[in-house]
Design a protein that fits this description.
Layout (H helix, E strand, L loop, with lengths): L1 E8 L4 E6 L4 H18 L9 E5 L2 E8 L2 E7 L5 H19 L5 H6 L1 H11 E2 L2 E2 L4 H7 L9
Antiparallel strand pairs: 1-2, 1-5, 3-4, 4-5, 6-7
């Protein structure tokens, strides 16, 4: 299961979070743990260079894209390999929406479309859509013309 997708700014403030199957009382722990993990390890990392960690039998893959940090947390079948594929889909979708690796301002300007992308990519803890064109079609916000 894909337990969490978190996106934070360079100061460690969380911009977007999606938890699946994580009890409410554990979410604060995960937020602070991931932000600290990023603060300790993401300095000087190139865009989209993947880092991997393991904590309490779950896997974490995280990276920097522009001025935001992206964290994916998974367990069971979502090991580091599956998470690296999932984070590639997430970073590609964010770059497509923003047109380039985002600054925090650009990310917040495109916040709604980014959230739609995340909702199409991850559904109830499962990687749902990975095809870039399909995700673009699904988030167009236009009603279908055919009935």
């Amino acid at each position: 299961m894909l337990l969490a997708v978190l996106i934070a700014n360079s100061d460690g403030n969380i911009l977007v979070e999606r938890f699946n199957g994580v009890p409410g009382e554990e979410r604060l722990h995960w937020r602070s743990f991931l932000v600290k993990l990023g603060a300790d390890n993401l300095k000087g990392v190139k865009n989209e260079e993947l880092l991997v960690a393991c904590h309490k039998s779950v896997y974490i893959v995280y990276t920097v894209l522009g001025h935001v940090s992206i964290y994916l947390v998974g367990k069971d079948e979502y090991d580091e390999l599956a998470l690296s594929e999932a984070i590639f889909v997430v970073t590609s979708a964010i770059k497509d929406v923003c047109g380039k690796p985002p600054t925090e301002r650009l990310f917040l300007d495109k916040y709604g479309r980014i959230c739609l992308c995340l909702d199409e990519i991850v559904w109830k803890g499962l990687l749902e859509n990975t095809d870039k064109d399909r995700i673009k079609r699904l988030i167009r916000l236009k009603p279908p013309t055919e009935f």
